[in-house]
């Protein structure tokens, strides 16, 4: 019985997140008022932010740099290295496949274990939350 009720609550919560709490039909008025009163209103009803206001924030530049600088290296791994190995080193597809998977595997490891970097930095090096997440984002290979 408890499991069935748990799944029912999860379904109601999923529908509420999908359609919004305000117009959800299976939430009683008391619960809806509690949810809506607890929201802080960030990003609600403020409209679109202009390009100038987005470009003026430090957080945008931290994320943009973390994505901008590793991208040329990733494109080199994806496109130029296989072309180089075929044209200059006369390697066939089988020979390339022996080693071409290594950069992608390293990127997968970075994606899997990169999530542990932020809590590690916060716990052991006393780094603030936002800076630990920026360090994690900039450490990803892709």
TrEMBL record:
<keyword id="KW-0472">Membrane</keyword>
<keyword id="KW-1133">Transmembrane helix</keyword>
<protein>
    <submittedName>
        <fullName>Major facilitator transporter</fullName>
    </submittedName>
</protein>
<keyword id="KW-0812">Transmembrane</keyword>
<feature type="transmembrane region" description="Helical">
    <location>
        <begin position="96"/>
        <end position="117"/>
    </location>
</feature>
<dbReference type="InterPro" id="IPR036259">
    <property type="entry name" value="MFS_trans_sf"/>
</dbReference>
